[in-house]
Design brief:
The protein has 5 helices and 10 strands. By secondary structure, it is α/β, with parallel strands linked by helices. The chain binds the ligand O=C(O)c1ccccc1N[C@@H]1O[C@H](COP(=O)(O)O)[C@@H](O)[C@H]1O.
Length: about 200
Amino acid sequence: MKLKICGMKYPGNIQQTAQLQPDYLGFIFYQKSARYCTAEIPKLPQTIEKVGVFVNASLDDILAKIKQYDLQLVQLHGAETPEFCLLLKYLNIRIIKAFAVGDYFDFDDILPYEEVCDYFLFDTKGKKPGGNGIAFNWQLLDHYPSQKPFFLSGGIGLTEIEKIKTLKIPVYAIDVNSKFESGPGLKNIQSLQKIQL
Ligand SMILES: O=C(O)c1ccccc1N[C@@H]1O[C@H](COP(=O)(O)O)[C@@H](O)[C@H]1O
């Protein structure tokens, strides 16, 4: 199982987190988030892929951030349409399409995205578009109908990681965020060091 650490904001903290060699580091480009990233991202080891997280951003905005930060993937965490994803795909941009999961989830919703994104991500439906710090009922994924690899996110801490390891669902990567913070965007390195996948 791969690891994405999301919501990075402070250069020194980014460098310390990178030393833990996660597979992905995520940077939030959603202005209303307390984790909104305006930092200069330090040079990272090539094994770490930089993911820009966007919520209903314009194509121009996404392209500008990809260029400015040399992002390898975009995570679309809003109501982006399959047509919008297709536009990005034509530009050779790799896409993680996020879906908010409530008490119920209709997997028909992911079908139009099957051909136009590289990964799915399932996060908890909450008051905010992301970073709510709450887990959803993962058993809803028992009937996952797709072969596409997916990220699991939403309130994942050390206890949740241990539970995820026992699940039968094919989790490609876990995405951790607020449960490993000392403050918004400031990751707690000691807690992150305890992650064992
Ligand atoms: O973290 C944010 O502030 C955020 C804002 C807007 C979109 C996505 C955001 N974060 C993503 O939310 C999930 C779950 O985070 P948490 O563990 O529940 O805090 C994660 O995928 C982040 O990428």
